């Protein structure tokens, strides 16, 4: 619960109306009737005069007032108050009442007063440093900032004091900052250096190089953080220019510091916030009550809570205590407990509302204020930047450990001793003429000055540093000493140089690519082209900037109908298109890739044009050549088919001369069928659009019906043909056609003595294996005959030889007639010599 009360003063009746918090802040018993004299009695005389002057000025000037003052409460306790008030006037402009708020700022004022008593020399250096300096409590709330940090982020010290660092930290960097703070608090790191982004008062991000150390007391408990903030926004902007196509994203969370609880008398329910569970180190699912707090409060403080609890219910006196607890994991903490009882109609309790705040960090700071000087000296020694005091000539009076570490010396004493025994300008500075020039300029204009210089380390290596310093004068105006800060920027400069070289290398590569490249924005306007494109269109590179790409590349008044950039703007993906461009007399592939900003939004595209005119000419030549070869191959198949049909016709004529010899007739007839089966394959290829493969299903049906017709069995033998649609190459089709011809002819000649029956042909595909089944329901194959070894049958010998040729298998099922089962795979093409 915040210590803020509200009030109203009727100037016509002097009647005061206060909130309950006002009574607690000013120390008066609750609901006690008060008048103006009672209020003024708690002011020391000098504070009363200041207060009256402020109120009088507000009335006379018709303006609000705001002021801090000290009071002495009726119980004698001194408290510090922040008061804000405003005047209400009637229609005639006469003041009739005042209203405002009063806040107890005692704790903050005590810390500030103590800090003011610390080392003036360090405080002067802190406040006037040209780089941002911050003092932050262990709870993450700002205690003090210097002017440089105020200028950097746009907030005054008054605006930031008491706020949590996360409130001006970029949301994506809160987790990173929390990790750094926890690393220091847990002792994992003694000092830490990282980059983060602050949010300026006007909303823009400020990139900073942050170096933090934690000051601790003699018991190694944390007191406060000292943070050095170096503005690196310009460097980050330079880096961002090269990383526009990349981005990276993370959610941030703000950790609360105050837990709360509420008890409802009517419902008899109590609820705790998650933060209260975290303060006590308890898992949220556990059911808790107000009385359970006793389990975590150290026994020595039990009586405080018991007494306050009794007063809460008897006198309805709000609870306001600071207690010590032991959390679930054994951690000791200080907490501030505030509880208030609310009544229905001012009689019956309705609810209890309370807060528990972890004030461990604040209590430890308060207990260590008397040792602040010692810890400010620790800050000087352990600051993340080098700090020095020297004469105008360069002799060191004082340096911190960080500066001696930077320059490779064992200790500040060693650095001072060695440098002061020699010519400092010669011993330390590589560019010896720079320092006197900057010293002269600084003495002429006064104030803080910064410049970059190169230093010799003890081992002779060179460190590039940024030096910020000023002159501290004696009362007579003479220079007493110089003081300043030294920041090692060697790595940063190396990174900047590498970044610069990387940009130059990218520029060289961009112009060296043989393709036509352009950078185009979302409005189709050219931002940049490479040298190849500039030469192709006969303009200088900078003459393209601002021109519409479709005018330059296509001579059109709007984007080309096939423009791939139009598709990219719709789906954000890369696209490629082939275009023929008449005014460039060629064919081109146009590829576009999106360019994104830091938030992933499309800024434009990289437009790459590759000349494929030579390739297109070769493709046309190859296509024409293939068409010629296909015509030639068709003609070959056609002529082979005609020649085979001529052979078949000659065999048929030859039969007329051997009619008296049945064996000869049979041989000629079988030969004629074999020739026709091959002729049918070439005829199928000639008629097919694909000259490399045959629709074997159609071929098989035509072949079977031709054989049945040649044996004159078309009216008595019933063909049953079930074949899958199978495409086979000629290497497989020719032997398989001959096998089918032989087995079907064999069935037609021998299986049906009565010239009646069924002839079945089946062709099935199983993955990469094919199965051909030729069966009949005739008299069957003789049991004493081995079909694999029949020397008297040229047809069966030919079948076995062809089965071997196609690497297949053949089996015979004699259970019902004859059933030949042939399994094989399509043959691969074998190059012919």
* Stretches with pLDDT under 50, minimum 5 residues: 242-256
- Total domain units: 7
Question: How would you sum up the global shape?
Answer: elongated
> Strand arrangement, largest sheet?
2-1-5-4-3
Radius of gyration using CA atoms only: 50 Å
Ends apart, CA distance between termini: 99 Å
Main sheet characteristics = 5 strands, antiparallel
The helix fraction, in percent, is 25-40%
Number of strand segments: 32
Any idea what the CATH superfamily of the largest domain is called? Histidine kinase-like ATPase, C-terminal domain
Q: Could you name the CATH class of the largest domain? A: Alpha Beta
> Mean of the pLDDT scores?
80
Structural class: alpha+beta
- Kindly estimate the percentage of residues that lie in beta strands according to DSSP: 25-35%
Might you state the CATH topology name of the largest domain? Heat Shock Protein 90
Short key terms for the protein model shown above:
833 residues; five-stranded antiparallel β-sheet; 26 helices; 7 domains; Beta-Lactamase; alpha+beta
């Amino acid at each position: 619960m915040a210590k803020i009360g509200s009030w109203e003063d009727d100037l016509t009746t002097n009647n005061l109306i206060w909130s309950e918090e006002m009574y607690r802040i000013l120390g008066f018993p609750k609901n006690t009737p008060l008048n103006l004299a009672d209020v003024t009695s708690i002011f020391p005389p000098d504070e009363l005069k200041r207060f009256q002057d402020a109120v009088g000025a507000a009335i006379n000037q018709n303006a609000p007032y705001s002021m801090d003052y000290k009071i002495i409460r009726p119980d004698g306790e001194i408290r510090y108050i922040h008061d804000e008030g405003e005047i209400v006037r009637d229609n005639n402009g006469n003041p009739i009442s005042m209203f405002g708020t009063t806040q107890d700022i005692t704790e903050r004022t005590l810390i500030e007063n103590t800090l003011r008593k610390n080392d003036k020399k360090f405080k002067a250096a802190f406040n006037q440093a040209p780089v941002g300096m911050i003092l932050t409590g262990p709870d993450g709330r700002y205690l003090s900032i210097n002017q440089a940090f105020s200028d950097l982020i746009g907030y005054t010290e008054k605006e930031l004091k008491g706020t949590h660092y996360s409130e001006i930290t970029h949301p994506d960097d809160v987790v990173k900052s929390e990790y750094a703070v926890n690393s220091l608090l847990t002792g994992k790191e003694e000092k830490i250096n990282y980059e983060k982004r602050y949010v300026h008062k006007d909303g823009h991000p400020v990139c900073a190089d942050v170096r933090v150390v934690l000051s601790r007391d003699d018991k190694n408990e944390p007191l406060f953080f000292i943070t050095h903030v170096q503005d690196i926004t310009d460097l980050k902007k330079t880096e961002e220019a090269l990383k526009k196509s990349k981005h990276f994203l993370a959610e941030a969370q703000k950790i609360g510091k105050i837990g709360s609880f509420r008890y409802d008398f009517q419902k008899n329910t109590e609820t705790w916030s998650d933060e209260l569970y975290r303060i006590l180190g308890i898992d949220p699912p556990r059911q808790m009550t107000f009385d359970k707090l006793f389990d975590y409060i150290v026994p020595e403080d039990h009586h405080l809570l018991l007494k306050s609890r009794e007063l809460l219910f008897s006198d309805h006196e709000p609870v306001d205590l600071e207690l010590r607890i032991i959390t679930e994991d054994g951690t000791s903490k200080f907490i501030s407990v505030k509880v208030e009882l609310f009544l229905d109609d001012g009689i019956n309790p309705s609810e209890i509302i309370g807060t528990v705040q972890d004030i461990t960090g604040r209590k430890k700071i308060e207990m260590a204020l008397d040792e602040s000087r010692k810890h400010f000296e620790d800050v000087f020694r352990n600051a993340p930047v080098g700090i020095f005091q020297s004469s105008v000539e360069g002799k060191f009076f004082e340096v911190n450990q960080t500066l001696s570490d930077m320059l490779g010396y064992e200790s500040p004493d060693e650095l001072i001793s060695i440098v002061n025994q020699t010519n400092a300008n010669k011993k330390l500075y590589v560019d010896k003429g720079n320092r006197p020039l900057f010293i002269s300029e600084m003495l002429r204009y006064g104030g803080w000055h910064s410049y970059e210089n190169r230093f010799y380390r003890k081992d002779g290596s060179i460190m590039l540093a940024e030096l910020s310093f000023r002159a501290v004068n004696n009362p007579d105006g003479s220079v007493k000493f110089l003081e300043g800060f030294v920041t090692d920027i060697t790595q940063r400069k190396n990174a900047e140089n590498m970044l610069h070289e990387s940009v130059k290398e990218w520029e060289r590569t961009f112009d060296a690519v043989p393709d036509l490249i352009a950078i185009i924005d979302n409005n189709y306007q050219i931002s940049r082209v490479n040298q190849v494109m500039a030469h192709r269109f006969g303009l200088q590179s900078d003459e393209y900037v601002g021109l519409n790409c479709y005018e330059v590349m296509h001579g059109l008044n709007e984007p080309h109908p096939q423009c791939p950039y139009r598709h990219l703007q719709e789906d954000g993906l890369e696209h490629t298109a082939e275009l023929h461009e008449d005014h460039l007399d060629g064919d081109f592939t146009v590829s576009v890739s999106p360019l994104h900003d830091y938030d992933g939004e499309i800024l434009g595209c990289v437009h790459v044009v590759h000349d494929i005119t030579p390739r297109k000419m070769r493709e046309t030549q190859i296509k024409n050549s293939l068409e010629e070869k296909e015509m030639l191959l068709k003609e070959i198949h056609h002529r082979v088919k005609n020649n085979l049909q001529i052979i078949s016709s000659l065999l048929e004529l030859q039969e007329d001369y051997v009619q008296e010899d049945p064996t000869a007739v049979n041989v000629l007839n079988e030969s004629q069928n074999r020739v026709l089966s091959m002729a049918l394959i070439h005829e199928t290829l000639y008629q097919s659009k694909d000259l490399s493969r045959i629709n074997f299903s159609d071929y098989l049906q035509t072949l079977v019906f031709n054989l049945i017709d040649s044996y004159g069995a078309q009216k008595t033998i019933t063909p049953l043909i079930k074949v899958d649609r199978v495409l086979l190459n000629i290497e497989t089709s020719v032997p398989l056609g001959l096998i089918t011809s032989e087995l079907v002819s064999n069935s037609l000649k021998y299986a049906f003595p009565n010239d009646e029956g069924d002839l079945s042909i089946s062709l099935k595909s199983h993955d990469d294996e094919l199965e051909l089944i030729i069966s009949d329901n005739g008299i069957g194959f003789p049991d004493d005959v081995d079909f694999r070894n029949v020397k008297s049958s040229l047809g069966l010998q030919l079948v076995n030889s062809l089965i071997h040729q196609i690497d297949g298998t053949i089996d015979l099922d004699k259970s019902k007639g004859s059933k030949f089962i042939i399994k094989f795979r399509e043959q691969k093409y074998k190059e012919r010599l």
